[in-house]
Design goal:
Elements (H helix, E strand, L loop, with lengths): L9 E6 L3 H13 L4 E6 L2 H10 L7 E5 L7 H9 L8 E6 L6 H14 L3 E4 L4 H27 L1
Parallel strand pairs: 1-2, 1-3, 3-4, 4-5
Helix pairs in contact: 1-5, 2-3
Length: 154
């Protein structure tokens, strides 16, 4: 369940093996107007270990890099969505992948959505754009989760 961003900070989890990408993501998150707290893991195995050890406090939003050593984003997404305890996490795939051809990236995105990802973001190279895509993704997640909660109440 997504925290109410007006009262409690959103719990963000970033799984990314690139040290620079982690640094800039965290810096961008600090500069947007949404209260958050963040935990960071360096690869897919650390991600699954973290979630298992913190199952009572799962993140509101997971930014999941596709290309990581030891266990990649695809493998983690399958594992997350196959586990009832974790399949409610709002997952945003976050990658520097670029299309090999016009259809490659679109086919990959469709596959990720079918697997249970809620969003896909290609990592921008510009810091201002990074802040913007993170802010938009978090705002979208809040809106979608709020809408789902309202539907359940009705």
């Amino acid at each position: 369940m997504i925290a109410n961003h007006r009262n409690a900070p959103l719990h963000i989890l970033l799984a990314d093996d690139d040290k620079d990408d982690r640094f800039f993501f965290e810096k961008a998150l600090q500069e947007i107007s949404i209260a958050t707290d963040i935990n960071i893991v360096n690869d897919g195995e650390q991600l699954m270990d973290y979630l298992t050890k913190n199952a009572e406090n799962i993140p509101d939003i997971l930014f999941l890099d596709l290309n990581m050593p030891r266990k990649n984003g695809f493998e983690c997404l399958l594992e997350l969505k196959g586990n009832i305890q974790f399949n409610g996490i709002y997952v945003i795939m976050f990658s520097t992948s670029y299309p090999r051809d016009v259809n490659y990236e679109q086919d990959m995105i469709k596959r990720l959505y079918k697997m249970g990802a809620q969003d896909y973001i290609r990592k921008p190279g510009d810091f201002a754009q990074l802040k913007q895509v993170i802010h938009l993704a978090i705002t979208k997640a809040i809106e979608i989760k709020s809408h789902h909660r309202q539907e359940k109440v009705l």
